[in-house]
Known about the structure:
The structure holds two protein chains of two kinds. In chain A, about 70% of the residues lie in helices and about 0% in strands. By secondary structure, chain A is mainly alpha-helical. Chain A has one domain: MetI-like (MetI-like fold). Chain A is globular, with a radius of gyration of 24 Å. In chain B, β11 and β12 form a beta hairpin. The radius of gyration of chain B is 24 Å and the shape is elongated.
Amino acid sequence: MDSFYKKNGSLISTFFLIAITFWLVFLILIPQLYMLDLSFRPNLPPLLRGGPDDVYTLTHYNHFLFGSETSKDTYNYVDIGVFVDTIGTAVLVTIINLCFCYPIAFYIAKLATPNATRLLILALIIPFWINELLRSFAIRILFAGEGVINNLLIELGLLDVAVNFIALDVALYTGLTYAYILLMIFPLYNALDTLDTNQLEAAKDLGSSTIRTHWRIVIPHAKAGIASGSTMVFMLTAGALATPVVLSSPNTFWFTQLIYQWFNMNDNWSRGSAYSIILLVVSVAFVLLMMRLFKVTIGEVVR
Amino acid sequence: MSADVELQSVSIAFGDFYAAKNVNVKIEAGEFFSFLGPSGCGKTTLLRAVSGFLEPSEGKVLIGGQNMSGIGPNKRPTSLIFQNLALFPLMSVADNIAFSLEVRGVGKQARRKRAGELLDLVALNGQGDKKVHELSGGQKQRVAIARALAVEPEVLLLDEPLSALDLKLRQKMRTELRAIQQRVGITFIYITHDQGEALTMSDRVGVMNDGQLEQVGSCYEVYQAPSTPFVATFVGENNAFAGKVEKVSKGTAQVNVDGKSFSGAIGKTTAGNLHNIGVGDEAIVFVRPESLNLAKDTKAPKNKFSADIKTIEFEGNLKNIYLKSSTKKSIRFSVPSVFDTSHLTPGSKIELAFSAQSAIVLPSGPLALD
């Protein structure tokens, strides 16, 4: 601490300490701990809070697994189903995102001229000046029954009847993939940018095909960037709210929508908290498992 | 197997800029050939045209008599060693070496065996399981050589691979590279800006400047009989005395340099004829620092001149004495270290001389930058 002060001067050091403490403690730790606490308490009207009935309970977690006490099913198939769907879709979106962004990031990092690089990065960033909700509605307009794509395909004679892209969740997948594209491209770009171009030429000179060069040289080099990008995209997709609300089909329900309902419509903050905690814990566990599987360490991901 | 490499009128342009201009050279099969030149002279560009990473804008590259136009680097019988070696850091040493076999679908056992043989060849036995970063600079060098040889190339191309090593190791690797070349018997094309490297290893050297091949010849030829002022000053040290030709007779020319007459042998052109020098032409007399002598130690000194001593530099085996002539021209005079220089104090004037046979007269032209 002493050396930190000496190195950076008292003004900067004090600012850093206050800012970081504020961020970590007040914005992250306290709300999360409060939520964790709340998730183990019964949902009581304000007057009864802190009274004899306010004891720790697992009732909200039980509800997620086994449903309400009046339910005849063994498990809470609806909520678990929504949860599994959400995680599954988030995984799929992450994979699509990776497949889509890898060639773009590689092109920007290794093949494009400096001018083209600047232009491409601008082209990637500028659309994100428009807010997420508006972008989602724009995609809805694109994929709607009377939307741009349907009209175009019918006009060209490729379709007779409009395809319901919303019901097929094509719009949802597209919207979610696009929503976090930058969070995939930039870690990938950073990783690929540090790859020595001579290695690509060396591999080629030794007779390697493009695909093998990527498989043996480029992807191993970019592994940390892939892990970093995938983690962020997965986490944010699983926790997305605006895009699923605007783009999901009537029968697709996103787990965050459930959480939203418990908090805002059913006024059950305790249950909402329990559901949030479930999403958080399972997402983190899933990411850690994947990192284990692909032999990536936390240190590499944040590099 | 080794193949000859022929560059026929090769020019390589990037927009308006010509990195190589009308280069013609035939490198014999099994030869150790070096392209020597300052950075930016186009030698790396030329090497990339041989390896297939670049197509010449004009002219042809032939390897083993075959036109290589349109044939990619992975299809040519060449193998390239990069300046920074470009080893694959995430693979073991053996995997690096056997990568070319892996891409050809050779099985694991056979790959290990071949990697082992190549490790023996470069004197790295038993180091195959190490990671690249665990090796020293010299060892990495050998891995790069082994990896390049694994494809069994007919021509090995080396792009200044020793430039990152320290002096001792560089000298050791020169000897070793030469030995490896003789063992495998294939053509080596070596790129360097270091004349010491080029002269110690090569059978022949091609000196390049500004995209053009100035002279091709044996190491001895480019040092002793430079055909252009650039080669004279780039290969080794040389004192250049520019002036006007006053007299020409039987292969010697007398040049008036600031009022003094210096005579020397007329140099040869790249084609092997004497340069066509006539009275009144602008010419330069080149004298190596080691060819200068103190006038008082010379019997009947010729080509005599005097100069002021500026500094004396001790270089181990040599002492370099830097002088300034009356016309402010810098002159370098080298003597063996055993030579007693105690009487040569900076600021004093000395008389120097050189024999006409040790001086070369060339038509004036651009010199290598100091």
